Amino acid sequence: xxxxxxxxxxxxxxxxxxxxxxxxxxxxxxxxxxxxxxxxxxxxxxxxxxxxxxxxxxxxxxxxxxxxxxxxxxxxxxxxxxxxxxxxxxxxxxxxxxxxxxxxxxxxxxxxxxxxxxxxxxxxxxx
Length: 127
Fold this sequence. Notes:
Layout lengths: L3 E8 L4 H14 L5 E8 L4 E4 L2 H9 L6 E8 L6 E6 L3 E8 L2 H19 L8
Antiparallel strand pairs: 1-6, 2-3, 2-4, 4-5, 5-6
């Protein structure tokens, strides 16, 4: 099977902590190991690039309210499987892609479950 891509979007999103939990779930379920992780938070006057989820979680707990936040996690090599969570102040989008269908799909589904539980969505079959 060739490379594929999956994407879902939730409007009216505001819970950034769930994005971190969803990324952790994706890493564990993939499994994405070894993992590449990049977190970017944008505020009015600054863009912070963080090397991991712990740093992002710590920053959010300190009261920072970013205008946007992107979380990228991937398996090495990155072309095998990656998951991206993007928040732009209005909606959350979850994307996954890669050449390793099973690994990328498992990571995508695990992240989607974390989001769905918080959003109260049960319209799809949970893995």
